[in-house]
Amino acid sequence: MSWMNAVELQGVHCALKPLAPEHHDGLVEAANDGDLSKLWYTAIPSAEGMRSEIARRLDLQAKGSMLPFTSFDAAGRVAGMTTYMNIDAVHKRLEIGSTWTAVRMQRSPFNTECKLLLLGHAFEQLGCIAVEFRTHFFNQQSRAAIERLGAKLDGILRNHSRAGNGTLRDTCVYSILESEWPTVKAHLQWQLVKPR
After folding, report:
1. One digit per residue, pLDDT tens: the chain, 196 residues?
2. Of the candidates 184, 154, 158, the residue with the CA atom closest to the CA atom of residue 169
3. Which end of the chain has the lower number of beta carbons within 10 A, N or C?
4. Where are the alpha helices (DSSP H) in the chain?
């Protein structure tokens, strides 16, 4: 995976470190904050499923299709997971996804800075031409967060997949293009410093 090497991204409000098995206990604690695994419209691992989810993501990393991160808050406490996924090294595209964050960090500068770091690395170091985000049609919180970043809705993939509970998922596909990155970057930087 020469184009996509493991990297650590550091900000003021967050740090993104390569996912590792030793993050297990912190990830379980973060997922338990808000009972995130009980949300029907997304797939957040339960305490019992966390080891297998870590192994799944690391296996996909070994195959070159994912680069998983553990997210940490400013105090160094585990806050969640995120990934570069659906990596297309030929066309220099990827998706930022399989992201979840402990409730204690939601609606704070944490997510804004995580996305600023991930997008900055994708566009400025990896030379991506586009970065995608995908979420369930019914995940209104995620859709609003993606739109706040400045991503635009490309479309909705109807009956795109089947969820763990057997329901069919309509997937909303968003993207930010390389040409849009300077404006999106300025917007995210402003979000981090604007008066609250």
Report:
1. 467 889 999 999 999 999 999 999 999 999 887 666 556 556 677 778 899 999 999 999 999 899 999 999 999 999 999 999 999 999 999 999 999 899 888 878 999 999 999 999 999 999 999 999 999 898 898 899 899 999 999 999 999 988 777 889 899 999 999 999 999 999 999 999 887 6
2. 158
3. C
4. 24-32, 50-62, 109-120, 140-149, 181-193
Dig out the tokens for 118 from the structure.
Answer: 């991930």
Q: How far is CA 125 from CA 92, 122, 146, in A?
A: 11, 6, 22
Domains belonging to the chain, first-starting first, are: 9-193 (3.40.630.30)
- State whether residue 82 is helix, strand or coil: strand
Q: Model-level pTM?
A: 0.91
